Amino acid sequence: MKKIFLATLLTIFSYANERIVSLAPSVNEIVFAIGMGDEVVANTMFCNYPEESKEKLKIGGYSSISIEKILSVKPTVVVGQDYDEKLNSNLQNLGIHTRIYETKTMNDIKNTIIDLGEYFKKEDNASKIINDINKGLKSLEGIVEDKKILIVISPKKHLRNQIYVAGNYLYFEDMIKASGNKNAYVSNSKSQPVVNVEKIIKMNPDIIVLLAPFFEGKKEELEIVKNSWKELPVNASRQNNIYAVDKKYAGIPSHRVIYFMKDFRKILEDVRNKRLQ
Length: 277
Description:
The chain is an alpha/beta fold. The protein has helices at residues 2-16, 25-33, 67-72, 85-93, 106-119, 123-138, 171-178, 197-203, 219-230, 235-238, 257-276; strands spanning 20-22, 40-43, 57-58, 77-81, 98-101, 148-153, 163-164, 182-183, 194-195, 207-211, 242-245.
């Protein structure tokens, strides 16, 4: 009994004294969500959620991470994403323990939550988040079906030649499929899709969702953005199915996909209700 008690104390002490550095907003948010935010000693300038995350030491941005600053905080673990292979390799060569994740698909996001939960002994918190995500996906079923949905990333006030859309290898695709609909954009390429107006007209989406977090609180500017899309000769504009999500979590592949799924569900419900009128 005494040995078990001592082992439990050792485990609690060990994980209560982590010194975590997070290199990406999505992973940073997950670390906080599972209950390890107090142990984060540094993160990037883009790690601004939750609010207390802003108070942590900033070690740079996406392409300006300072290894010197990371070393200065003496981290027990550095958590990040897989997009900067050189940085991740340099950290490992310096003997810094790293945990690197992909957060592209819904399964990637869930696996990241599960793995971090296991690593930090926060399995119960992680399991609750996973359950909420699964419930969110389930809630999308049977509202409207067989619609072509186009998700536009960071739309501008005016339509230009380079328009970024959600491809077929991101968590948006998983949400669209879970709802019984299909992505208007179809390609075997895993790179970030960039299309033009002609391509969108050819796709002829039934629903267009604009991810516009930079327009949060700017209703008039957001209306200008939406109006430019309403002029397109596609089903979405003819049926008034142009929507915008202007929340900061739109496009962040963390546990906050739960919030975006609620927005997506409301959009689908609105499309359905228009049909019933």
